[in-house]
Amino acid sequence: MKEKASIILHCNAVTVEFDGFKAVQGMDFELKRGELRFLIGPNGAGKTTMLDVICGKVRPTAGKVLFKGSVDITRKKEHAIAELGIGRKFQTPSIFHTLTVFENLEIAMSQNRGVFATLRARMRNEDRERMMNQLAMIGLEAKAQWRAGRLSHGEKQWLEIGMMLLQEPEILLLDEPVAGMTDKETDKTGELLHAIAKKRSVVVVEHDMEFVRNFASKVTVMHEGKLLKEGSMDEVQGDDRVAEVYLGKRRDADAGRTTA
Ligand SMILES: Nc1ncnc2c1ncn2[C@@H]1O[C@H](COP(=O)(O)OP(=O)(O)OP(=O)(O)O)[C@@H](O)[C@H]1O
After folding, report:
1. Ligand 1 site, CB within 6 A
2. Angle in degrees, CA 220, 65, 86, rounded to 5
3. ipTM beyond 0.85?
4. Which part of the chain is the ABC transporter domain (predicted)?
5. What is the tens place of the pLDDT at every residue in 186-244?
6. For ligand 1, atom 11, which residue shows the shortest CA distance?
């Protein structure tokens, strides 16, 4: 019998109000294990607020967020949600510029060690192997001894993603990860996200439609705090309401690449 792909995250009728203004209105969102999902929509659609709700930065006014089916994280604090396995990456990388790439990864690793501290000697080889694997995955093996401040913008983003992965999140939330990247870096990031989604679930808020087209299998479109459309990029692009919503509402900065 074919096993039903399991849902790792379920947002049910989430509403967020800021001083009476509904930034998100009755939003439903389901994410499967090992899924890479793109969340798109015009400015102010409520995308970032949804990520804020999932990671506990913002408490919803109404609705529920369930992790792994039964863990209600709706009212949990940000650090508790992070510990449960939901990692959030913001646009500006929070890496240590004066430390090397390797040292940055070491710090991320030690943050995760906690209860294993007493087993450190035994863990060390295993840790090292995990860090080397992580370095390879983010494509920074050759720059392991570089100070992180010398890395390009894209490489800094990959380093932070690598640091987050060492915390072993089950869900990774990313806000516009390719903003400011070169086309080559953007493509490498798309490949990295696919590699990550082999083991974890990933949600990416994105404005760069060329990037979404190249790397998305399933896309969720939000508009005015609500779910407008969900489906493949072809289905989304062929939808009249989506076209209408995007028409004339593109951000000027993205106009060169954005043609949704
Ligand atoms: N802390 C806040 N206080 C008041 N209003 C807010 C707050 N955060 C977001 N908003 C408003 O909620 C709406 C949704 O914002 P949000 O940032 O989630 O949209 P978005 O889809 O991520 O947009 P963008 O693509 O521009 O980042 C916007 O109108 C925004 O001004």
Report:
1. 18, 23, 41, 43-49
2. 80
3. yes
4. 9-249
5. 999 999 999 999 999 999 999 999 999 999 889 999 999 999 999 999 999 999 999 88
6. 23
